[in-house]
Structures are given as C-alpha cells and as structure tokens.
Amino acid sequence: MTFGQILLIIVNFAGALAVFLFGMKLMSEGLQKVAGNRMRNILGHITNSPASGILTGTAVTAAIQSSSATTVMVVGFVNAGLLSLAGAIAVIMGANIGTTVTAWIIYLFGLGTGDGIFSLPMLCGAIALGFMFAKTDKLKSIGEFFVGLALLLVGMEYLQQAMPDLQQYPRFLEFLGRLSDFGFWSILIFIVVGALLTCLVQASAAMMAITLVMCYNGWIGFDMAVALVMGQNIGTTITANLAAIVSNAMGKRAARAHLVFNVVGVLITLIVFRPVMAVIAEATTGMCADPYLLPTDAGYNPTAIPLALCFFHTFFNVVNTLILAWFIPAIVRVVNWMVKPAEEEGEDEFRLTYIGSGFLNTAELNMQAAQKEIENFSKRVLRMYTFLPGLRTAKDDAEFEERVERIAKYEGITDRMEMEISQFLTKIATGDLSKEGSQRISSMLRIVDNLESIGDAIYQIAMQRKNKRETAVHFDQGMNDNLSHMNDLVQHSLDVMDANLHTDYSHIDLDAAYAAEHDINNYRDVLRARHLDALKLGVYDFSIGNAYSGIYALYEKLGDYVINVSEAIDSSRKNTEDV
Questions:
Q1: Would you state the torsion angle of the CA atoms of residues 241, 244, 245, 249, taken in this order, to the nearest 10 degrees?
Q2: Given CA atoms 52, 283, 299, 113 in this order, what sign does their dihedral have?
Q3: Domain ranges of the chain
Q4: Are 93 and 105 in contact (CB under 8 A)?
Q5: Blockwise average pLDDT, block size 10, the chain, 579 residues
Q6: 290, 301 in Cβ contact below 8 A?
Q7: Are 577 and 505 in contact (CB under 8 A)?
Q8: Domain 365-578 - what CATH class?
C-alpha cells in the first residue's frame, strides 16, 4: 500500500465520519429544540427514586440521541443542587440504556443500504418539510431532525464505502489477527483501544458505527468487537468529566459516578464473558435467518454479527443497570471518597458555579445552566446590598472603610459575572436555537445587564456615603430615618425580583414587582417635596441637601433597574406564549 493510497483512505474515512457526526448533531439539536424546555423540566424535577431516574435518563437520552448531553446536564443539575447525587447516578444509568437506540438505528437503516433507499427519500422529505411547507418552528425542528437522520445514514453508507478491502492487504489482516490471538489479553487490548478512540472522537455513537462497519466487513471477530464496545462505554465518560472540571465537588462526583458505573459494568461482564457471548449467540440465532457462529468458530456471518453487537450493547447496559441500581448508595460512597470536598472559596471571591465549556455542545439545553448562574448573580447582588446600612452605623473609620472595600470588591465581581454570563449566552445564541430559545437568550441578556447596573448603583450609593463622610456632612435623625425607610422599600423590591428569578419564568409575580416599584417612586416624590421645602425654609444648607437628595435619587434609580429585571422575565414569558 503506497502513501498516497493510505492518505486517500484516511481522507475518505474522515469525510464519511464528519458527515455522520454532522447528521448526529442535526438530529440531536432538532429534537432538543422540539422538546428542550420539557427535557430541562423533566430532568430538573425527577424524584430521587432509582426507578424514576433510570426511566427518565433512558427516555431523555433516547429522545435527544446523546448520552453525553444527558450526562453533562446531570452534572450541571447536581452542581446546581437540583438533583441529589443518588438521583443523578440513576439518570446516568438510564442514559446508558437510552444511548443504545442509536446503534439500532444504524443497524436497521444504515448497514447494507448502499443504494440510499432510506436516506435519499428521507432527506428530500425533510428538506420539503423544514424549508417549504413548515409554518411553525416546531415543524422546522422536526424537519431538521429528519435531515440529521438522513445525513447520519448517508454517513454510514460512506463509512462502509471508505473501508478498504483488507483481503488486498494481507499484512494488515495478519496484524489484526495477531492482536486477536492473545486470548483474554486481546479482549483487554481492544477495551483500551475502544476507550482511547472514543475519548479522541468524543462520540460513542460514531465509534459504535465504526465498530459495526468493521464487523460487517469482516475486519474483526465478534468478541473483539464486543471488547471495543465495552471500551467505548468507558471512553464516553470523558465528556461529563471534562464538563465537571469547572463544577463544584458534587458535580465532579456525578461525573466520577458515570466512570465508576461503566468501569464496574465492564469488570462484571469480563467475569462472565463467555456465558454472555453464548446468550447473545442464542438471541441472535433466534432473530437472524442465517446461522450465527459462536465466537470460538471461524467465518463470521456479516449479517448476523452487527445484529449480535446491537444485542450485546443493549444487554450490557440493561443488565448492568439492573444489577448496579441496587448498589447506588455504595457508588455514592465511592465517589465521595474519590472527590473530597474542596475548601469553598469565600463568598467575596469571584467564581461561576453553573456554566462551563462542556455545556456548549448542546445549545438549546444550556439555558438551564445560564438561568441558575443568573440566580446566583442575583444572590450576589442582594448580598452586596446588605452592606449599605452598615456604612451609616459604622463605629469608626476602619469599619467604614472595610465595608466600602467589600462593596467595591462586589462591584468588580458583578462586572465580571455580567461579562462572563453574557459571553456564555452569546455563545449559546450562535447555536441553532428555536425561536423560543432565542427570545429567552435575549431576555437573559437584558436581565444580566440590569443586575450589573444594580451593582453599579449600590457602589454609587456607597461612594456618596464616603464623600459625605470625608466632607463632614451630617444628616439629622429624620433624614437618616427617611433613607432607612427608602432602603427597606428597595430591599423589598430586590426580594420580589429575586423570587421572580427563581421561577421557571412562566409564573412570576409581576404585580408584586410593580407594587414595590410604585412604593419606591411615591416615597421618592414625598422625599423630594420635603427636601425642596426644607431648602426654601433653610432647614439645612445646600451641601447637606445635595448629599441627601443624591442618595435617595440613587435608591430610586436602583429600583428602576430592579423592575427592569422582572419586566425582562415577563417579556420572555409573553414571547414564549406567542410562539
């Protein structure tokens, strides 16, 4: 084989794999846009019952055709406190079962259909549905799913065509034969190879497709293919573990649980490897017209082997789940031991808790993480606001300066959070979102911008207090009481805003938000009228009056930013209802 021939094979294979992966991505994103919100709500509200978690993980993964997307979401939900670790492990077990659907799609529609009998009509029909007759976003997304499925099948056909006839290259066949001649060690070698290749490709479905084609073309025997599949189950855990790098200890534990479950499942299967092969052989013989040869025999049937591999893939994940579901508490103890609770950063330190690079693979489902991060942003802003009263009651300059420094530090944190969350939302927006998703992103960007403005207003009030102290301006008790009451009104408004942010954006209390804003504006008007009268009567001089009016005006301005947040949430709700 010349260098040019090798290069041509690699290029053809890479192109076929790219078509397959792109089809997989389109198919998954189309389904996510159809049911993304439902998927987020289902995963966010499941019970801690193992059966509930397993069924949910199976259904969600089968629907969105991506176990990686499911496990990454689970890591995020555990990180956000929406799921217990035990519940997350159950969902991950179900995700392993759900991902077997892909292998069956490939087997039933993708292998041996080189004439494109399924792919071409499906592609044409999807294009017509998605771009000619569709009147709603949901229909367009369904059309996108069928386009993706068609491309996936076309990719499978190209993968088969890209595989060279190894009969022309006896040395390579001899090399594969030698790798398969080490008995049990060969099984271990192929498990490692499957794990490494899946880590590199970052798609277990693609590796499953390659394995099926290799079996179909007679490159490897059934037992070696089974070993590759077991390795793929280990390699696919890398996605969740990468996503967990930016997570807290609980998120990391959920990712490690995925690894532990799959590794233990492989070890269990290795212990009973030959009996399992016999069971798969019997099942395949019952389904396939051609005789299925046992792994110890020679000359594998190209029709029976891929079917047997699909049987094994399903058998492996279902049986391991049925066994290990009883040991979820033990898995929890193992991952708790693997990931020790790190020393938590002080709340005055900047950190994003719920978003990370791993979520960017599933644009429609990333908004759950973004929403949780916005809730965290709101928590930081409310915490920052609690420092303001202490500026008036500080006993000495040291205490006053310490509080001013904390407010200044929080102001820097709000700036960075606004920048980081906005960048994350912008990256999500570059994905193929539904109209509902795009409108939600727009509302979230507006919310983040106003939360940062609230932080700025708090800082400005602190600077006004500092300037007042440095210029030896003193307020009388009545003025202090008025500002204290204004502080309480804004605090109530912030509490309403925070409660609205912690909803699913469809059940916010906008009336309470407007009532709080109305109280702030009315009291500002009262203070303004009294202030003008006091200036006319000479109750206090201009420097005192200027400092006083500047502070209550900033409180009112802060209230404007607060109501903007609730209005942005309501705008998102209305736009969603109109879709």
A1: -120
A2: negative
A3: 3-338, 365-578
A4: no
A5: 66 72 67 58 60 80 66 67 77 85 70 50 57 63 71 65 54 56 77 79 69 71 81 78 66 83 89 81 63 46 71 86 90 87 52 57 66 88 92 87 91 90 85 75 93 95 91 88 94 94 82 94 93 87 89 94 92 55
A6: yes
A7: no
A8: mainly alpha
